[in-house]
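Progress report, Aim 2. The chain analyzed during this reporting quarter is listed below.
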Amino acid sequence: MIGLASNGAQVLETLRRRKADVILAAVDLRKNEHLLVFKQIFSECPTPIIMLVEKDQLSLELLQEAIGLGVYGVILKPGPAARPAYRTKAEEICRKVAAVRDSEYWDPKKRLSMLREEAQLLPKPAQNVSRNATADTIIVMGASTGGTQAVEQIIRQLDPTLNASVLVAIHLPPKFTHTYSRRLKGMTDLTVMEGRTGLIPKPGKVIIAPGGRNMIVQTVMGNASNLKIGFSEEEGHDLPSVDQLMIAVAQSGVRRVIGVILTGMGKDGTAGVMAISQREGGHVIAQDEASSAIFGMAKSAIESGKTDKVLPLSEIGQYLNRYVAAGQQQVSTTDVNS
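Predicted structure tokens for the chain:
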């Protein structure tokens, strides 16, 4: 053994000084958010990794990403999360560390197949959604001039039991959105709040992007379908950026993404619409010209050829209710028949 480390920086420092045959590391190692340490190891000093992970943390998305970064084996942490009983895993750890040198699974696809089976990462039966789970359908609304009134009209129409999360980006200055979020709360039984780092887009939650900041979504523990609110420092003419928010959600692993482009000047949202339309489970709605205060953003989205529906503002809320409910019914039917 060449060394011990309590965080990612120490791991990298040790590897830069001495070559290791294999690394035994927990996925929640400090400073390894979004597998950053694993990525640095893979880039600077490629070394096979045996990854320690809790059963609840393990997902197919995490496994796929980790294998691409040199993970050769997975060990499920034993016992309570606070005090894992690693002594019970001593034989398995020794066996897997020794096996790395002679591993036949150098090919990532073969490794993924082997580790999925070993970790019993098989499709699970439908269960009640966890209170902390990300919604499997996310609606992203984008607007500019006239957008506050347009969003208000839609929010008033949304079903209070809507099984989706709604993320809203309107071109507004800082501080204004706090007051606007409070105003929307009085119009719906859905939970309305201004976006802040770490919020989870749960079903029934409406999150308003703070004025002057680019709100996005980020993955939690490498799970592409488990999301939290974050912010991008990327500069841009339009703040909050509709494109950045839509693209971030489109690139996530949530089951369905619905993009809604409303009234506003310019072309912000067109790139986001294209990202949503290209992914499985993507659906795009644009507000029609007659009901738009400024027919710029919606017009640009429509002209891209990537919108699925063009509707008057008065019909968008009810359409969303029906579309979300129909998708949920389809999932329930599939679960029963599978």
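Residues 8-118 form a domain with the Rossmann fold fold (CATH 3.40.50.2300). The longest helix spans residues 313-337. These observations will guide the mutagenesis work planned for the next reporting period.
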